């Protein structure tokens, strides 16, 4: 899929549907800047965004991927491609990362409230290992300080994850990056594998790390 052709088709179809970039972005849980980048051919939507994008524009997934106007009935249907097959395999296993991020944020808030309410005062935040296998506390912090700090860190990391996902884990730093992205078949097995790895990297590192630390503080104190 060529990014320039896709961008022109997306802009044309969006306008035909009477949607602004902001309207479309709101339906997809992305920013209007992300939609603008797609329409300018700077990048392509994330693989998890394709199906919601097709629904928002009133297209089938195949029509969207082939930049095909469904009203052009005189055109013969395109032969199924590897992209169609891979997308079909992906659809039953679609993961709503937007909802998962919301759940992780709620979990972090609940743990922070629990820690402040049920563990007031000074908490041990660091332990020093002794030679006999025991541990000795050598770092302390007020619960009213540590839990809000952890919650703020969770908000920051989840937002960072969201921003990277909106751009398909791609940042436009120059023409070299744009050329590389446009040359990639973003539904190829290799690209999908990288996307899978990055999804779970952000899930564990940006999503679960802070709640894990909050649970550890509550249990150890």
UniProtKB/TrEMBL annotation:
The lineage of its organism: Bacteria, Bacillati, Bacillota, Clostridia, Eubacteriales. This is Transcriptional regulator. The chain crosses the membrane at residues 100-127, 139-161, 200-220. Keywords: DNA-binding, Membrane, Transmembrane, Transmembrane helix. SUPFAM superfamilies: lambda repressor-like DNA-binding domains. Residues 10-64 form the HTH cro/C1-type domain. SMART domains: HTH_XRE. It comes from Faecalibacterium prausnitzii. CDD domains: HTH_XRE. One of its GO terms (molecular function) is DNA binding.
């Amino acid at each position: 899929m060529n990014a320039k052709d896709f961008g022109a088709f997306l802009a044309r179809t969006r306008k035909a549907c009477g949607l602004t970039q902001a309207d479309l972005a709101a339906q997809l849980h992305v920013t209007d800047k992300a939609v603008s980048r797609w329409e300018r051919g700077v990048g392509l939507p994330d693989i998890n965004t394709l199906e919601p994008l097709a629904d928002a524009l009133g297209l089938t997934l195949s029509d969207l991927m082939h930049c095909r106007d469904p009203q052009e009935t005189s055109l013969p249907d395109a032969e199924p491609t590897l992209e169609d097959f891979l997308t079909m395999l992906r659809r039953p296993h679609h993961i709503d990362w937007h909802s998962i991020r919301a759940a992780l944020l709620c979990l972090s808030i609940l743990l922070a409230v629990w820690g402040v309410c049920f563990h007031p005062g000074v908490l041990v935040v660091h332990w020093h290992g002794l030679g006999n296998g025991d541990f000795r506390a050598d770092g302390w912090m007020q619960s009213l300080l540590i839990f809000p700090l952890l919650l703020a860190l969770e908000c920051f990391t989840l937002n960072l994850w969201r921003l990277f996902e909106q751009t398909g884990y791609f940042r436009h730093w120059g023409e070299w990056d744009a050329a590389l992205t446009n040359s990639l078949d973003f539904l190829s097995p290799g690209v999908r594998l990288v996307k899978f790895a990055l999804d779970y990297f952000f899930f564990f590192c940006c999503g679960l790390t802070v709640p894990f630390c909050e649970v550890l503080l509550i249990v150890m104190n």
